Amino acid sequence: MFENLNVSTDTVNQLSLLGAALIVLITVFVVGKLVRQMKTDTSSGELADDNWDGIGEYKNPLPLGWAVSFFGTMVWAVWYWFAGYPLNAFSQIGQYNEEVSTYNSTFESKWANPDQETLMGMGEGVYLVQCAPCHGIAGDGIDGKAAGFDTWGTAAGVLDVINNGSKGLGYPMGEMPAGMASGEDAKVIAEYVANGMQGEQPASFAACASCHGADGKGLGGQSPDLTTYGKTAFVTEVLNRGKDGMIGVMPKFNDGRLTDIQKEAVGHYILSLREK
Question: Helix 260-273 crosses helix 92-110 at what angle (to 10 degrees)?
């Protein structure tokens, strides 16, 4: 893997080796000089007024060698960033990001219009790698340690959120406390949301409107859009936002590790878990 590395023509490597050699030589010289001084020199000069536990400090001038080294380091840093190895020069990280971007573009183009079978297969593969370690292979949430998908998207799932609250999604409106509604009112709200907020809106939905808006769409991103609950769009939103959970932090998948079609596929697969 190093067959093309030529130290004699690589300016950065040459400077690195030269710098290392100079550091060794300077270190040996300085250490030797200071050791000799320790054997012969005695303290002298004017003491500062303050002392600590009887230990005083001399008002000696700043050592010339230290000042020169400090200034030289600053000059070298500026030169390194803007001339020796500029910020816009080649980097393996930049190359990796370009390759990932190219691959994702090709992937999105290839699977622009996948059928249901393809979505399910893709979603299952991503879920087992990225989601199953916390949510369980069967999506049961591993005994409540993480969100379970066996009831997610149903009235029972909404009712669980109403009863226990919701946190960790980082919406501007803040966390949803438990018990915003109870009894029959909570059940009616759960049914209404789980059915896609179709039909006549129940009066008890007023408990949700203050945060989610009268239309349930989240007041322009201030809180979750309830009209997408139980759909792939809601799953995609959670994947993009990440979540603080009981067993750790679910990362944000908006950093390129999953493409849009992969997020949609995960949503389709998660929806299938509640049907099993």
Answer: 60
